[in-house]
Design brief:
Strand order of the largest sheet: 2-8-7-4-6-5
Largest sheet: 6 strands, mixed
Distance between the termini: 53 Å
Number of helices: 8
Oligomer: single chain
Structural class: alpha/beta
Number of strands: 8
Radius of gyration: 19 Å
Strand content: 5-15%
């Protein structure tokens, strides 16, 4: 099967799962085909699927990851003042590291909005539908929504990292409070604790809560760096913490904080 044949197979299989989509025409444009596949993956409820589908999906997504390019987290330059801290601007789903941290919601099942630009959606789309299935299993066993400031860990499946740590950041709908700040710091500490318990040496954080959850960017960065430093003072397992940013605004905020350490 060629790469494009895998794309068509996966799309057809997902369309066939629902009578609502059976008979839907698949666009001839490759870009639109990829968007349709991602849409179908995003909206799919966590339910069993065939081993054959997963095998072909894994081959397809691995090829997509390789084409996108993989960034070695261990090769990124560290802060001059603390060799354990790294600032990097880029796509977190291209990062080869022991774990990446996903900014999840309390359901922990990923974003169901088709092709949404949030990091939760992007991570699930690149990882594959097993990630939602793994999260669903955790939440079924837990029996309640994930509390803010807590975290869970899953395999990364088709991502180049080893694990995904899912943490629920605070939602700021009005003024920023001390509770919001404590909860955000808790996200970093809970994620690092899981990484240390798994004996992981490297972890990459996205900018938790600063997107859809509206946490002020500068204060979020201050809390992130402070929480990480506090944790590393008493933990020698984690050797490298990458602050992954996607916007230039966040890059400048983190750069100034790290240079002031």
């Amino acid at each position: 099967m060629t790469h494009n044949e895998k794309l068509l197979y996966l799309t057809q299989e997902l369309l066939s799962e629902s009578s609502q989509y059976q008979g839907m025409a698949i666009p001839s444009d490759i870009g639109k085909q990829k968007r349709l596949l991602r849409t179908l993956m995003n909206i799919r409820e966590p339910k069993p699927i065939s081993k054959e589908f997963l095998e072909i999906q894994d081959q397809y997504l691995s090829e997509e990851v390789a084409e996108q390019g993989i960034v070695d987290g261990n090769a990124l330059p560290a802060s001059k003042l603390d060799s354990r801290l790294v600032l990097w601007k880029g796509d977190i789903t291209t990062l080869k590291t022991d774990a990446i941290v996903n900014a999840a919601n309390s359901k922990l099942l990923g974003c169901f909005v088709p092709c949404h630009s949030c990091v939760d959606n992007i991570i699930h789309s690149v990882s594959g539908i097993q990630l939602r299935l793994a999260c669903h299993g955790i939440m079924e066993n837990q029996g309640y929504d994930e509390p803010t400031g807590r975290a869970k860990i899953t395999p990364a499946f088709n991502l180049p990292c080893g694990y995904v740590i899912h943490t629920v950041g605070p939602i700021v709908s009005g003024r920023l409070t001390e509770t919001h700040c404590s909860q955000l710091a808790g996200c970093y500490k809970a994620s690092l604790k899981l990484a240390s318990e798994k004996k992981l040496k490297s972890i990459a954080f996205c900018c938790i809560s600063t997107g859809e959850f509206h946490f002020p960017h500068e204060r979020a960065a201050e809390l992130a760096v402070g929480a990480v430093q506090d944790f590393l003072q008493s933990d020698s397992q984690v050797e490298r913490v990458i602050f992954n940013v996607f916007q230039e605004e966040d890059y400048e905020i983190y750069r100034q904080i790290l240079e002031a350490i």
